[in-house]
Amino acid sequence: MQHSYKTGDAGHVDFVGAGPGDPELLTLKALAAFEQADLVLHDRLISDEVLALAAQQAKLVDVGKAGFGPSWKQSDIDALLVDYALKGHRIVRLKSGDPTVFGRLDEEIEAVQAAGISWQIVPGITAASAAVAGIGQSLTRRGRNSSVRFLTGHDMKGFADHDWNALARAGSVAAIYMGKKSARFIQGRLIMHGADRATPVTLVENASRPNQRILATTLDQLPTDLATAEMDGPALTFYGLAPRDAAQAVTEFNKEHA
C-alpha cells in the first residue's frame, strides 16, 4: 500500500520522476517535493537544469548506475535511503524519466516500507514519450499498430531477450531503452526471426534537451550508422518509426534559437 507523508513522521521518501531532462517537463508535484527535500539521491543521467531546482538546503548525492560499468550496488542505495529517512530526513529519490519504467523502483520501495518509512511515487515523463514527441510521431497509430512494447536493451544477465517473432512482424513498434550497446544483438535477433531489413529505426539522443540529436536509419544499417554517429548521451531507440520531416525542422529551429 502506498503511504502519504504526515508532518511529524521520522522521515519520508518521494520517488520522483525527473523526466527526460528538460526542467519545464517536470510536474508541479515533483517541484513541490524538491522544495521540501533536504536530501536528493539522484541517478547519473539527471540534467544539471533539473538538479538546480532542488531546495538550497538540499544535499545532492549521485547514486547513479552505468550500464556495463561501475555502479552503486542496489543494496547500498536501499540502505542509504533507510538510514537517512530513519534520521528524520525528507528525501527525494530522483530517477530519470518515470520511476516506474526500468527504474528498479520496487527494491527501494520494499526497503523503505520494511523499515516503516512513509513514501509516495511522483510520476514523470518517460523517455519514450519525450523522444517520440521529438520525432513528431505517435507511439500507436490506427491501422499500423494497436500496441507498443517498451523494452530494455540489457538486463542483469546481459543483453535482454524478448519475443522476437512478435517484434519482427510488419507494423510492430518498440521503444528500446538502454539499447545502444545492444544494437547489433537486437538487429541480429530481429533479422533471424524474419524482420524486414528496411524497417525504419530512429535513435533520439538527449531527448527534450538543447543538445538533442536524431539518427534516422534502418534495421539493416543500425549498427553501422550508430557507430558513425558516436552518440555518447542517453538515447532511446524506436524500432518501426521514422521521424517526420517537420519534426527534424523543428529540432533544428530549436537549436538555432537556444
TrEMBL record:
The lineage of its organism: Bacteria, Pseudomonadati, Pseudomonadota, Alphaproteobacteria, Rhodobacterales. Pfam families: TP_methylase. The keyword Membrane does not apply. The gene is cobA. Keywords: Methyltransferase, Porphyrin biosynthesis, S-adenosyl-L-methionine, Transferase. Pathway: Porphyrin-containing compound metabolism; siroheme biosynthesis; precorrin-2 from uroporphyrinogen III: step 1/1. GO terms for molecular function: uroporphyrin-III C-methyltransferase activity. GO terms for biological process: methylation. Its EC number is 2.1.1.107. The keyword Nucleus does not apply. This is uroporphyrinogen-III C-methyltransferase. Belongs to the precorrin methyltransferase family. Residues 15-222 form the Tetrapyrrole methylase domain. CDD domains: SUMT. It comes from Ruegeria haliotis.
